[in-house]
Amino acid sequence: MESFVVLLPLFGALFAMPVGRAIGPRAAELLTTGFLLAAAVIAWFLLFDVTSLMGDDGGGVRTIELFTWISSGGFKAVWAVRLDALSAVMLVVVNSVSFLVHWYSMGYMKEYGEQPRFFAYLSLFTFAMLTLVTADNFLQLFFGWEGVGLASYLLIGFWFKKKSANDAAIKAFIVNRVGDFGFALGIVAVFYVFGSVEFDTVFNAIAANTDITPFGQNAGAPIQALTINFLGNDWHALTVIGVLLFIGAMGKSAQFFLHTWLPDAMEGPTPVSALIHAATMVTAGVYLVSRCSVIYEYAPNAAAMVTLVGAVTAFFAATVALLQDDIKKVIAYSTCSQLGYMFFAAGVGAYDAAMFHLFTHAFFKALLFLGSGAVIIAMHHEQDIKKMGGVKDVLPFTHILMVIGTVAITGVGIPGLYLFGAPFGAAGFVSKDMILEGAFAAGEVGRAFGYFAFVLGLMAAVMTAFYSWRLIFLTFWGPSRAPEAVRKHPHAVPDAMMAPLIPLAIGALVVGMAFYGQFVGDNKQEFWGDALYFKTAAHVEGAASVDHAGADEAAHGVVEHAPADTHGGEAEVAEAGDHGEEGGHHVPGWVLWAPFLAMLTGLSLAANHYLRGDPLKPGILREGGMIYAFLKNKWYFDEIYDYLLVKPAFRLGRLLWLEGDGKTIDAVGPDGIAASVAAGARRIVKLQSGYLYHYAFAMLIGIAVFITYVLIRAGGGQ
Amino acid sequence: MIDSLADQHWLSLLTFAPLIGALFIVISRMMAKKNDDGVIAGPDLEQVESNARIIALAFTVGAFLISLGVFALYDRSLAGFQLVEEAAWIGGGISYKLGVDGISILFVLLTTFIMPICILASWDSIKSRVADYMIAFLVLETLMIGVFCSLDLFLFYVFFEGSLIPMFLIIGVWGSKGTKEFAGFTLPSRVYAALKFFLYTLIGSLLLLVAMAWMYKQAGTTDIVALQQFDFPAGAQKWLWLAFFASFAVKMPMWPVHTWLPDAHVQAPTAGSIVLAAILLKMGGYGFLRFSLPMFPLASADFAPFIYALSIIAIIYTSLVALAQEDMKKLIAYSSVAHMGFVTMGIFTATKQGIEGGLFQMLSHGFISGALFLCVGIVYNRMHTREIAAYGGLVHRMPLYAFLFLFFTLANVGLPGTSGFIGEILALVGAFKVNSWIAFFAAFGLILSAAYALRLYRQVMYGELVKQALMSIRDVDRRELLSLGALMAFTLYLGVNPGPALDVFSPSVDLLMENYDAALAAGALR
C-alpha cells in the first residue's frame, strides 16, 4: 500500500491522455484528481503512522524496496519507498498541495482547453517529486530531481506557441543543469568516498565516524577528518561532498547565482507556479540539505556556505520583489526569498525549523499563487498590479483569502503569547521566528554567519511585509485603475478555483500553532526520530533564556540522539547530546520581538505609501535613479549571464566549428592530404565513385600481401 | 554442453544469414524479365524492387530471431567465450574462429535489432536502385555481425575493413544531392563525404594491418584468445597500441579525427545514418576493449591520460560545436561524438563502473542516436530539408511525433529513467575514481547536452506553425511508429532496469580487469 502513495500519480500521468482522448477531458481531470486525493489521504495516514503525531513512538519508519535499479560493482541503487518523518512530511505537503492544485486546475484550465495534457504533466510532476522524497539512495533522489526538472520544463513551456514560454522553459532546464553538474559530481564523490550511494550506509558511517578508505587510496581515516584529493588539492571529504550537493540544491531551489530561472518560470500556468514553483519542487533543495543533515553537521564550511547563500538570497530576492509590478513575479521573488530563509536555517543547524518553514510556506504560498490566479482570470489576464486596484469589490472572497495569505507570510502574531504550549500567530509567524531565533542562537555559539543571517533575515522580514502588503493594497484596495470594460465585466471565476483555497487558508492560519510542538517544540525528538541529525548546541552559557518552550524543554532533559551513541568517548558526544535545547533557543527577549517589529515596520511603510493619496506616486526611490534601476533590473543578473556565458558559448561553438573543424582539422587532415593526392591522380573525379574500387583494391592487395607473408612464414617454419 | 553447442554453428548461421538474403535478391533479379534493351523496367522492375524489400526485411528479421536464439543459449554467468566454432582456414595459425562473450554478445543483438529498422526506414524513401541498396545493407549486416563474433584477428580485420565498402556505397550512391568544391574539383557532396571517410580510414587500416603482421610474427597466430594471453614486450606494446588506436579512434570517432562523421551523416540516407551511428561507431569502442586493453595493458595504462584528454575535449568541444549547428543531422552527429567521449573515457579508466558505463553507453547510444536520426529522416522525407530554420511549430501538426522526438531528445540529454543516464553516470563514477579533474570536465557535458538538444527541439517543434510548407505535414505513420516504439521500449526499459545488460557485461568485464591488473602488476615488477 505504501508504494501506492508514489504510484497513483504515475497512473494518473499515464492514463490522463488516453482517457482524455477516449472519454473526454473531464474524465481525465476527474481520474487524475481522484488518484491524487487517494494519494493525499494515504500520505496523511502514513504521517501519523511513521511519526509520533499520535503519541506513539513513531515506530513505523521503514523502507520498501521494489527492485534493483543499477548494480555495477559496488555502485548499487534500489528503487525504494523510504518512510520516515522527513519523507512523510514531504509526502503530505506534496500530495495535499498537488491534490488541491489539481482540483483548482479543473476550474482554471476550463477556458484554455488541453486539460488532459496539463493534468498528465501535473501528475507526472507529482510522481517525480514523490520518488525524490521517498528515495533511500542518492541515485533515486537524482532520478526524482531530474524528473521534477522535466515536468517543470514541460509545464513552464505549456503554452508552447509563446516564445517567452519556450525561452523560460529552456532557461529553467539549463540553469537547473548547472546545479545538477554539482549534484552529479557530489553523488560520484559520495560513492568514491563511501563505496555506496545508500543513505543508511553513508549517514551511519558519518555519525559513527568509522574509518573510511576511499577507492584507490592506501590509508584511510575516520570519516569526519578524512581528506580527499579533489581537483588537485586535498580537501576535507565531507566539505567537498556537502558543497557539491548544495550546488545542486542551489539550482533546484533558485538560490543566489542560480535563481534567474524562477521569475521567468512564471510563464507557466498559475496552478503550476503554485504547485511546482512555490510549494514543492523548489523546496527540494531544502529537503536535500535536511536529508543530508549529518553531512553538513560535520562539514562546517559547507554549512557556512549554505547559511551565507541562503541569507543573501533571502535579502536579495526581497529587494527585487519591492519593485516588481507583475503580480506573479512579486510572489515568485517572495518564494525565492523564503527559500533563502529555509536554507540559512538549515545552514545554522536548525533543520527542524527549515523543514517547519517549508511546511508552513507550502500552505500560504500556494494560497497566494492560487488567489492571484483568480485575480488574473477576473482581470482578463492582466498581471500588472499597477493596472488593478479595487479588486476586492470584484472578488471579495479571494480578497479575504489573499489577506490571510499575507498575514501568514509576513508573520502576524503576538510575541510572547503561548496557547497550549505553542506561540500564538499565523503559520509564517511561528516558523519564521524559529528560523531567526535559530540564526541568532547559532551566532551566539559562534557558528559561521549566524548573526549575519539573523540581520539579513530581519531586513528581509521588513521588505517581506512591505512588498506583500504593497501587493494587497495595489491589487485589492483603492479605486480601480483597470479599463472600463474590465471593471464593468470582470471575468467569472469558477467555484473550483475557490473551494481548494479554503483548506489552504485555514492551514495558513493554524498549521504553525498546530504543529509547533511536533516539528520544533517539545516533541521534536520523537517526531523526527533519526531523520534529522542535530549536533550543534544552541545552548551557550550567559545567553539569557527566553521564558517559553525552551525552558520546558531544558527541564524535560537531554534526549540522547541515536546516531550520537556510536561516537564512543569522543568530545562530540556531549555536544551532540545537548541538542535537545535546539527547539526553544536560548536567546534574549528582544530577539523574539525583532521579527514582529520588522513586520510592523514593513506594513506601516507600505500603508503609508499606498493607502495615502495616489498609490502610484513616486516613492523614496526616484524612478530612473541608480538604485531603482538596479532593483528594477533584478541586479542585472540576466544581462551579466547573457554577456558572460550564453553569448560566448554560442560564439565559441561557431568558432570551434568553422575555424577548428573546418579551417584547422580538415585543412591539415583530409583536405590537405586529398589535395596532394588529387594533384597526382586527376582521374578521381571522372571515375565518380571510383575511389571505392581503389580502396577495395588497396585492401585486397594488403590482404594478399599479408596472406603471402603468412604462407611463406608457415612454409618456412616447417 | 558448450562443446555440443559448438558443433551447431549458431554464430556462422547468424553471421551469414543476411548474406544469403542478399543472394536471394540477386537471384530474384536474374530471374526477372528483361526488355529488349536488356534492362529490367516497368512493372518488372517494380516487382524486383518489391521482392528486394521483402527479402531484406525477412532476412534481417530472421537474423534477429536467430540472435535471440543465440542469446538464449548464451550462459551469462560465464566470463569466457561461448558458442565458439573453429575451422581451418588459411593455415599457419590463422583460422576461421567465432565466439561471443559478455562484451560482444549485446552488440550482436544491437546489430540484428537495428537492421530491420533500417530496412523499414528505407521502405519508400529509397527510390533508385532499390535492389542494390538492399544488397548493400544485407552484406553490411553480415560484416558487422562478423566483426563482433570474430575470434581471429585476421578474420576481424577482413570484416572490420570490409564493412566500409557497403557503407561507402550507401553514402556515395544513395546520398543526398548537392556539390562541394574540393581539391580543385567540383564533386557531389556525398562523394566528398565518402572520400573524407575513406582518407581517414585508410591510414588507420594500413597501420592496423602492419601491426597485425608484426603481432603474427611475434606470436605465430592471430587467434584472439591466444593473443590476449601473449605477453608483448612493453616497448612494442606502445607502437602496437598506437596502430590500433589510429584505426579505432577514427571509427569512434574521437576528437580530432571526427570531422568525417558530420559530413558522412549529412550525406547518408536515413538508414545509412542510423546504421553508422548505432553500430559502426561502436566497432571502435569494441576494438579498444577487445584488443587494446587486454593485449597491450601496459601501453593502455601509459596512454590512458592521453585518451582522457581527447575524451574531455570531445565532450566539451563537440558539444559547443553542436550548439552552433544549423543542420539537424550535423547537430546530432556532433552530439554523437560528445557521447562517444564518455565511452572512451569510461573504458580507459579500467574500472568496473567505467568499462561497464562505456559499454552501456554504446548500447544505449545505439538506440537513442538511431532513433534521433530516424526522427530527422521522418521530417526530411516529408520536407526534403534538414535545415533547422526551415521548421518550427511542428507540434501542432504532429503531436505523436512531438512526443517521440521529445522522449529521445531527453534520453540523449541523459535524463535518469532513460538508458542514456546509466552509461554517463557509470562513466563519471569510473572517471572520478581515477582523477576528479576528468569527472569535473566531463560533467560539463550534462549542461551543454541539455543546451543543444533542447534548442534543437524547441526550434523544430515549438512556436507558432507559420511556414506554409509545413501546414500539411502529416504525423508519423504506422511503420515509423513501430520502429520508434521499439527503440523507445528498449531505451526506457534499460533506463529503469539496466540489470539485464549490466549482468551480461559483468563476468567478462571482471575477467578483463583481472587480467589487466595482473599484467600491470607484472609489468611493474619488471
Which characteristics define this entry?
heterodimer; A: 718 residues; mainly alpha; two-stranded antiparallel sheet; 8 strands; globular; B: two-stranded antiparallel sheet; 5% strand; disordered N terminus
Please summarize what this structure is.
Chain A is mostly helical and 718 residues long. Helix content of chain A is 65%, strand content 6%.
In words, what does this structure look like?
The complex is a heterodimer of chains A (718) and B (526). Chain A has helices at 4-22, 25-50, 85-108, 115-133, 138-156, 163-194, 199-208, 237-252, 261-264, 270-279, 284-291, 293-297, 300-321, 327-347, 351-378, 391-394, 396-410, 427-444, 450-476, 484-488, 501-519, 524-528, 549-555, 571-577, 589-610, 626-632, 637-668, 670-680, 690-717, and strands at residues 62-72, 75-83, 211-212, 221-222, 227-230, 233-236, 413-419, 422-425. With 718 residues, chain A is mainly α. Chain A has a two-stranded antiparallel ribbon. A two-stranded antiparallel ribbon of chain A has the order 3-4. Chain B has 526 residues and is mostly helical. Chain B is built from 22 helices and four strands. Chain B has a two-stranded antiparallel sheet. A two-stranded antiparallel sheet of chain B has the order 3-4. Chain B starts with a helix and ends with a helix. Residues 1-6 of chain B have low confidence and may be disordered. At the A-B interface, strand 1, helix 5, helix 6, helix 27 and helix 28 of A face helix 6, helix 7, helix 8, helix 14 and helix 16 of B.
Distance between the termini of chain A: 76 Å
Side by side, the strands of the main sheet of chain A go: 1-2
Our Rg estimate of chain A from Cα atoms comes to: 29 Å
- Low-confidence segments of chain B, given as residue ranges, are 1-6
Low-confidence stretches of chain A are: 536-583, 680-690
The residue-averaged pLDDT of chain A reads: 84
How much of the sequence lies in strands of chain A comes to 5-15%
The 3D shape of chain B can be described as: globular
Derived structural class of chain A: mainly alpha
Fraction of residues in helix of chain A:
55-70%
DSSP E strands of chain A, number: 8
What is Rg of chain B? Answer: 23 Å
Q: Strands across the major sheet of chain B, in which order?
A: 1-2
- Total beta-strand segments of chain B: 4
Specify the biggest β-sheet of chain A.
2 strands, antiparallel
Strand content of chain B: under 5%
